[in-house]
Write a structure and sequence with these properties.
The protein has about 500 residues and is an alpha/beta fold. The chain folds into 2 domains: about 270 residues, Aldehyde Dehydrogenase, Chain A, domain 1; about 180 residues, Aldehyde Dehydrogenase, Chain A, domain 2. The protein is about 40% helix and about 20% strand. The protein has 15 helices and 23 strands. The strands form 6 sheets. Strands 15-16-17-14-13-19-20 form a 7-stranded mixed sheet, with helices on both faces. Strand 2 and strand 3 form a beta hairpin. The chain is globular and about 80 Å long. The structure holds nicotinamide-adenine-dinucleotide (NAD). The site of nicotinamide-adenine-dinucleotide has 30 residues, from helix 7 and helix 8.
């Protein structure tokens, strides 16, 4: 079995106490790798390396062009190793290989390239002070050491989404992937080393959230936390990052995405995009469309098409390019998904399809769950309010768009929302009313690295991606310089 160590200060190291753990393939529940297991001491070691690199200015004081060159070298190395990265991504997450090859790895490479080029674009502003021999200029500076904590659903993509803007802007980083899926992020360390990065700029450790993750949150030498994960842990992150001193925090949390299908919509297109919305990555997507608001006029036709298509989805061998759905991340997640479905049925929801583990041998050994649709759901049921993070869609019938939007917004989350209609006025109005970080109109769950991504309400704080996202990693300094001969006090004291 392949072994993986931590990447600290450009060296491959074991954990301080020598402990390791096994990473498991969710499609078989068999171990695939042995990985060093971090505790507080390992976090401390990684933070020291990042702190020293930052304080020496060996990265932050490089020209943006130079940082870009290092990052572009990494992007080239990622391209060369994309097959290997995709294979590991699928092995450790249980997602179909086609998704790893077409989505996860290309997105990660694109993040490296995009933010590399953004490193060249960091500029300031000048504010005129008329009539004085003085000028006011605003500079954007790195925070220092960024602690990045990411989840397991898109391991390399979400790691690069935070690592790349952090280093492009001159910060140094301690990166902790989910302990379920550390391998592709650790492999990135090999490419950082090969690209010739100075030591300590990027440090990668792996370990559980309540020890290693918690140690990152509480470390006094970390200046900023970028966290992607669940709402429950996000709340802990916000609390913990207030002490012993205040850290800058960006939170990318969960969602409960509404999908509104208006009576005039292109039904085939909407059905297609909804299936992507709740079945992509087995439904383990933060912005998944998990609540369908379906107009009563098209209810029967839409449901018939939807259910026929969902029943034909191919679950199975994650390494087979024709597989459309793989396995959930672990048994605990499988049980959680199943318990939400069972409870919904007990509370009066009608099971339309799915609702059980996929038990066709040899896949019965993995954490496969059939794509599931529940109707007769009311908005106050737990299945309509809480993030299930599996392939489960709840359906609510509506008569009036205003009412549908009210219900769509009636959740603590506000990450993504979708509406399908052929009427641009309807789309414009709905987009204005929907309380979400992203609104998709006649499309679904697509995202571009150039555009800001993030959530309203309990779905997060701040934005990742795009020029708005990159600013999260920069602190703002206002500088006022007097260049006149005689000091002329602005407030009149002479
Ligand atoms: P999680 O919150 O359990 O874990 C996320 C990360 O936090 C992991 O690295 C974990 O080890 C760490 N962690 C756990 N407990 C911690 C603690 N007490 N202190 C510090 N770190 C801790 O989430 P998950 O189950 O890995 O991922 C699924 C969740 O992530 C879903 O809620 C999903 O919606 C969300 N997500 C959000 C986005 C987004 O962009 N908004 C993207 C992907 C996933």
């Amino acid at each position: 079995m392949q072994k993986f160590k931590f990447f600290i200060n450009n060296q491959w190291v074991d954990s301080v106490d020598g402990k390791t753990y096994q990473v498991v393939d969710p499609s078989k529940n068999e171990p695939i790798a042995e990985v060093a297991l971090a505790n507080e001491k390992d976090v401390d070691r990684a933070v020291k390396a990042a702190r020293e690199a930052f304080d020496k200015g060996i990265w932050s004081e490089l020209d943006g062009d130079e940082r870009a060159e290092y990052m572009l070298k990494v992007a080239e190395l990622m391209k060369k190793r994309k097959k290997e990265l995709a294979r590991w991504e699928t092995l450790q997450t249980g997602k179909p290989i086609k998704e790893s090859e077409d989505i996860d790895i290309p997105y990660s490479i694109r993040a490296m390239e995009y933010f590399a080029n953004q490193a060249r674009e960091i500029k300031g502003e000048v504010i005129p002070i008329p009539g004085k021999y003085a000028f006011d200029y605003v500079t954007y500076e790195p925070y220092g050491v960024v602690g990045s904590i990411v989840p397991w659903n898109f391991p390399l993509h979400l790691a690069t989404r935070t690592l790349c803007p952090a280093i492009a802007t001159g910060n140094t980083v301690v990166l902790k992937p989910s302990s379920y899926t550390p391998i592709t992020v650790i492999l990135l360390g090999e490419m950082i080393l090969e690209a010739g990065f100075p030591p300590g700029v990027v440090n990668i450790i792996s370990g559980p959230g309540d020890t290693a993750g918690n140690a990152i949150l509480r470390h006094p030498d970390i200046d900023m936390i970028s966290f992607t994960g669940s709402l429950e842990v996000g709340q802990k992150v916000l609390e913990a990052s207030a002490r012993p001193r205040i850290k800058k925090v960006v939170l990318e949390l969960g969602g409960k995405g509404p999908f509104i299908a208006e009576p005039d919509c292109d039904i085939d297109g909407a059905v297609n995009s909804l299936i992507t919305g709740f079945c992509l990555n087995q439904g383990e997507v933060c912005c998944a469309s998990t609540r369908l608001f379906l107009h009563e006029k098209i209810y029967d036709e839409f449901m018939e098409k939807l259910v026929t298509r969902v029943k034909s989805l191919k679950l199975g061998n994650t390494m087979d390019p024709s597989t459309q759905m793989g396995a959930l991340i672990n048994k605990k997640q499988l049980e959680k998904v199943d318990s939400y479905v069972k409870e919904a049925i007990k509370d009066g929801a009608k099971l339309v399809c799915g609702g059980e583990k996929y038990n066709v041998p040899p896949f019965d050994k993995g954490n496969y769950y059939k794509p599931t649709i529940l109707e007769n759901v009311t908005n106050n049921m737990r299945c309509a309010q809480e993030e299930i993070f599996g392939p489960v869609l709840v359906v609510l019938k509506y008569k009036d768009l205003e009412e549908a939007i009210k219900l769509a917004n009636d959740t603590r989350y506000g990450l993504g929302a979708t509406i399908w209609s052929e009427n641009p006025r309807t789309l414009y109005w709905a987009a204005k009313k929907l309380d979400a970080g992203t609104v998709w109109m006649n499309t679904n769950v697509m995202s571009k690295i150039e555009a800001p991504y993030g959530g309203n309400k309990d779905s997060g704080l701040g934005r990742e991606d795009g020029t708005i996202g990159i600013k999260e990693y920069l602190k703002v300094k206002n500088n006022i310089l007097f260049v006149g001969k005689d000091y002329d006090n602005f407030y009149g004291f002479k």
